[in-house]
Write a structure and sequence with these properties.
elongated, 5-stranded mixed sheet, single chain, 4-stranded antiparallel sheet, 1 helix, Lipoxygenase-1, 117 residues, mainly beta
Length: 117
């Protein structure tokens, strides 16, 4: 069974007209992953490994919680950690880190609110 790491109460203040881009950056080597951004009202973008996707404007995101889930596969027997940076508009939202000895293939879940800036 995969260990799940949850990051609750994340917040990114943004004005109504601002376009929001979500970035996943795998910092540690030999990791692969699929990130799903759950937004029933806007579609559910997927990021394979590292990458960036437009997720909506501040007005579209406000009043809802955006849920992001990454499932990670660590393929390197000599890699001792899993480290992933999550960014919104190139600003660090949260950096996940866990030793591979704790979990080789974690599931990471973010709960993000977008209050008015």
């Amino acid at each position: 069974m995969r260990k799940t790491y949850r990051y609750r109460d994340l917040s990114f203040p943004v004005s109504d007209a601002t376009e929001v881009n979500f970035t996943v950056e795998f910092i540690s080597d030999v990791n692969l992953g699929k990130t799903k951004i759950f937004q029933p009202h806007l579609g559910n973008p997927v990021i394979e490994n590292s990458g960036t996707k437009f997720i909506g404007t501040g007005a579209q995101l406000r009043g809802r919680i955006t849920v992001v889930m990454t499932e990670v596969v660590n393929l390197g027997p000599n890699e001792d950690e899993i480290r992933i940076a999550y960014k919104l508009n190139d600003k660090l939202l949260v950096e996940h880190h866990n030793p591979k000895s704790e979990e080789e293939n974690p599931t990471i879940i973010l709960f993000i609110k977008f209050p008015e800036a």
